[in-house]
Amino acid sequence: MDKTKFKEGFQKYTMIIVLVLVTIFFAWGTQGKILLPQNINNLISQNAYVFVLATGMLLCILTGGNIDLSVGSVVCFVGALCGIFMENMNLPDGVAIILALLIGTLIGAWQAFWIAYVRIPPFIVTLAGMLMFRGLSNVVLQGKTLPIKSEIFVKLFGGGANCYIPDFLGGEDGFNKVALAVGIIACAIYVILTIRTYMNRKKNGYDAGSAVAVYGKMILIVAVIMAVCIKLAQYKGVPTSLVWVILVVIVYGYITSKTTVGRHFYAVGGNEKATKLSGINTNRVYFIAYANMGFLAGLAGLLTVARMTSAQPTYGQNYEMDAIGSCFIGGASAYGGTGTVPGVIVGAVLMGIINQGMSIMGTDQNMQKVVKGAVLLAAVIFDVVSKRKSFIAK
């Protein structure tokens, strides 16, 4: 194998290799407890907000390494308003959900205006937003906890013990057939798309890569999907929070990889001046990134209050750190212009496994923060060093 291609392949799949090694370590350290069906389910449910926020944060980072520090506070504020709409104002659940998502989007658009058109640094705007919306969360909730009593809302967004897709296929002995069917369908779609993409690239004369590498990766991903779905089937099935995560990943994965708008994010992060000279409205790109972040923060707010079955002024603390960390660990560049939605999901899963593994092992909370910080620093150092070596080589 060519040495250069091997090096490029290693860099491309570094985080996947790390994820496998970390999983093996915690499987050994917890005596296999981390791989129990219930813990796999908890990993998904507890980190649903991370998957959603990290996907939105990726678009901000792509524009040049920019971040949004306000997402945790927006999650809390939007979740609090949704609870007030349903419980205090007695609005229908559907109306409350739409209003909450609309408010999240408006918050994002408000911050996006200052960033995109007034050109105030994103760090300053979103830092102000973090303080403002945390304070407003306390104001609207009056510093109290607001219980969420709507069963429909809680089940729809994945909170509580019975928030799973019903097993309409009639699974027996505690085995959920719907979860298994979802895995089979997902694998079939992935295999068809992978083979079609590979064949089309070969047909059109593009570099499609090694057939062994492409099909080897395909087999590995299919095995992982089926293993997860079998674990879910052995517990209660597919949690509704996972459905929202899958929808977000599919939609934004398509946008970033297959659309003109998606390519604009990478172009702005790669070279904003050249992108502007080519006729692309860079202000609009920034606006879309941060307005969209507000929308996804609103969705994460609904997932959070549904899971907790309450709204509290303290919800959402450090959520922005989890999202930012997942992006950088998942391969997004600190300089912008590089990163993918699948990579971000790998980063989020890695963070989730580290958190859960250390919790099961009884690691002190302070040491957990040390480990997470070290992992994030290592990921960014790897990105910076690899970019520098690549520049020197050229």
Provide a concise account of the structure shown.
The chain crosses the membrane at residues 12-29, 49-82, 94-117, 123-141, 178-199, 211-230, 237-255, 285-306, 327-354. This protein is mainly alpha-helical. The protein contains 17 helices and two strands.
What topology emerges from the helices and strands here?
Layout: H1 3-12, H2 14-29, H3 37-46, H4 48-62, H5 71-88, H6 93-116, H7 122-141, E1 146-147, H8 151-156, H9 177-203, H10 211-233, H11 240-258, H12 260-270, H13 272-277, H14 282-308, E2 310-311, H15 319-329, H16 341-360, H17 365-393
Antiparallel strand pairs: 1-2
Helix pairs in contact: 2-16, 3-10, 3-16, 4-11, 4-12, 4-14, 4-15, 4-16, 5-6, 5-7, 5-14, 6-7, 6-14, 9-10, 11-12, 12-14, 15-16, 15-17, 16-17
What features would you describe in this structure?
With 394 residues, this protein is mostly helical. It has a domain at 36-163 and 239-350. Helix content is 74%, strand content 1%. It has a two-stranded antiparallel sheet. α3 crosses α10 and α5 crosses α14. The chain starts with a helix and ends with a helix. The relative contact order is 0.19. Part of the binding-protein-dependent transport system for D-xylose. Probably responsible for the translocation of the substrate across the membrane. The chain crosses the membrane at residues 12-29, 49-82, 94-117, 123-141, 178-199, 211-230, 237-255, 285-306, 327-354. It holds the Pfam family BPD_transp_2. It is found in: Cell membrane. This is Xylose transport system permease protein XylH.
